[in-house]
Structure formats: C-alpha cells, structure tokens
Amino acid sequence: xxxxxxxxxxxxxxxxxxxxxxxxxxxxxxxxxxxxxxxxxxxxxxxxxxxxxxxxxxxxxxxxxxxxxxxxxxxxxxxxxxxxxxxxxxxxxxxxxxxxxxxxxxxxxxxxxxxxxxxxxxxxxxxxxxxxxxxxxxxxxxxxxxxxxxxxxxxxxxxxxxxxxxxxxxxxxxxxxxxxxxxxxxxxxxxxxxxxxxxxxxxxxxxxxxxxxxxxxxxxxxxxxxxxxxxxxxxxxxxxxxxxxxxxxxxxxxxxxxxxxxxxxxxxxxxxxxxxxxxxxxxxxxxxxxx
Length: 291
Known about the structure:
It is built from ten helices and 13 strands. By secondary structure, it is of the alpha/beta class. The chain folds into two domains: about 5-30 and about 70-160, 3-Layer(aba) Sandwich (Rossmann fold), CATH 3.40.50; about 165-290, Hypothetical Protein Tm841, Chain: A,domain 3. Helix 3 (about 70-85) crosses helix 4 (about 100-110) and helix 5 (about 130-145) runs antiparallel to helix 6.
C-alpha cells in the first residue's frame, strides 16, 4: 500500500495539483473578531472567496485570529488512512510559526497508545506556502514511485535542503500587527514604508530592504536568475491580490528558465493575515526532486 502524504492548508498549491498527487489535507482556521461569543473559526479549506477576505483585511483595523488544527482534526485524517493500510508522512507549516506541528505530534501520541504511532512520520517543513508545497510534491513523487515511509520522509527532507524561497511584502504592517515579524523585528519602526524582502528558515528571516515597488520587483527577478544558475530549474510564483505582478514575474521567469512554472497560486487567509495584500513570492528547487 502506497505511503499517504498529509499536509495542512498553508501550502496553497492549486487544488488540481493537490488532487493529482493524492495529498491529504488538515485545515487551519480563521476567525474575524465580532460581538458574538458564538462566532466560530472557519476552516481555511472551505474559504473559497479570497477576494472578499482580503477586501475586509485591507479595510479594518482588526486582524482576524488564526488557529492550528486540533488533535481531533489530525485524527480524523490519520485514522481512515491507517485503517486502509497506509503508512503516513505528514509535513507541516514551520513549528517556529505555528502550533500545527505540535498538534500533529499529539495526535500521533494518542495513536501510539493503540500501537499505530510508528506508522506516522511527522516532519516540520521549517517553511510555509510554496516551500511547504514543494516539500509535499517531492514526498508525493517518492510515494508514487513506491518509496516506503522512511524513503518518502528522507526525500521530503532532501527537498527542504534544496529549495529556496523569497517573498516581498508591500508593507511590514501586517507582520508587526500579527506578532509574526520574527528576525525582521529590527526593521520595524520608522521603516514600515519600505518593501521588505524576506525568507523563511523556521521563522521569518530578513533578506534586504528596498524603497520602491519597482526595485522590489527587479530583485525578485534577480532571485529567479540566482535560482536558475544554482540548478533550481523547478520554479514557482505566489502572490496575494497581486495577480498582475505575479504574471509579470511568470513572464520574466519563462525567459530565464525556458519553461513554465511548477505552479502559480494565491496565498490564502491564514498566512495572508500576516503577509497582507500585495505580497509576491518566488522560489524553486531542482525539478528532478519532483520526478
């Protein structure tokens, strides 16, 4: 029986890619503040209208609350897969940014009491968004090729070592307000008007600051060239409410790589709460890791 690959919703891979690779999902949650104590968290996996979410995010002073999956959420995905005979490799949003990884570990502990824990390998991706997506695709490729649990997990780790991601925010405001600014904290203060370029290495890491959107765009193009020159010939573009910029990056990427991107997608509400509208990101890894 093939190894089952499980992840959470913060990869933001296109839905058709998730389905084609038979990836199983555990959703994070979002809740807007309001007067009713009965308001509940909404599953990110069920939030189809990103436009409405980001329109509200840009017009209110109140940030929504995001939440990790519960232990029960993980069990509801793990248990049917185990019952069907699958071993599991479960890859999740960086533990330095969310308690999602911790919830997965707690779910495995409960299953360990039933003698099933060894059939679940849980990996901290040490990244999110497109980086997490690339790890998941690499794991799914190895599982599809007949790899066992240890081989699938090792392949995902190899992809993590090889992948590189940069993203540029329109402002640091959302990261600061949401308390996720990480090691870019030194840039906060009078520098909210800059265009920060960041990466994820378990937490948000500062790369450089630029003053204009035009300069930020060209630095992202420069990074695509760097990826190409380093042999990362599988590349991606992600954005938040910046489809025009994303398409321009895709056009430049085609010129650099001579190929289509692995995927282009919009980042959803859980990460978007902290990144904010206007974000663009690029990344890549050697495409052979996905074969």
